Amino acid sequence: MKLLIDTHVLLWWLDDPAILSKAARDAITDSANDVLVSAAVVWEIVIKTGLGKLAIPPDFEKAVQQCGFRYLPVHAAHALAIRNLPTHHRDPFDRMLVAQAIVEGATLVTRDANIFQYAVTCVRA
C-alpha cells in the first residue's frame, strides 16, 4: 500500500512517534508499505520554519531519508486534480495532499478532520 503522510504526521514521526495512533504507527512501520512525503509537505515545513512557527533539526532531510520514506514530487496532474475537489478545506497544502493521494492511489495518513470530508482513503493519525 502507498501511504502519503501529512505534515504533522511527519513531524510527529521524527519527534515522538508515540503521539500517532497505533494504526498509523503500524502502517508506517509495515515494510510492505511505501511511505511517501510530498514535496508540498517539505515546502510547508520550510515556509513555517522561516516564519518562526516551527523548528526542525539541521539534518531534517537526512532524518527523513533514514526513515526510508520516499519523496513524492508535485506534478501538473496533482495540481489539476485540485479543481475537482470540493472546498471542505481552504489550506492549499492539505488540498494538494488530498489531490496527490487521489491521483497516486495512496492512503493519506492524517489527523486533520477537514481531510476526512474528502473522498480519499485515510488512516487516522
Your description of this structure?
- The chain has six helices and five strands.
- With 125 residues, the chain is an alpha/beta fold.
- The protein has a single domain, classed as 5'-nuclease (Rossmann fold), CATH 3.40.50.
- The protein has a five-stranded parallel beta sheet, with helices on both faces.
- It is globular, with a radius of gyration of 14 Å.
- The protein starts with a strand and ends with a strand.
- The mean pLDDT is 96.
Please give the structural blueprint:
Elements: E1 2-5, H1 7-15, H2 22-29, E2 34-38, H3 39-50, H4 60-66, E3 70-72, H5 76-81, H6 92-104, E4 107-110, E5 122-124
List its traits.
125 residues, Rossmann fold, 15% strand
In angstroms, what separates the terminal alpha carbons? 16 Å
Topology as H/E string? EHHEHHEHHEE
What is the overall shape?
globular
Taking all Cα atoms into account, the compactness measure Rg is: 14 Å
The CATH architecture name reads 3-Layer(aba) Sandwich
> Could you give a short account of the major beta sheet?
5 strands, parallel
Which fold name is given in CATH as the topology?
Rossmann fold
Indicate the proportion of strand residues: 15-25%
Mean pLDDT: 96
CATH C-level name? Alpha Beta
Short description:
The protein is of the alpha/beta class. Helix content is 44%, strand content 15%. The chain has helices spanning 7-15, 22-29, 39-50, 60-66, 76-81, 92-104, and strands at residues 2-5, 34-38, 70-72, 107-110, 122-124.
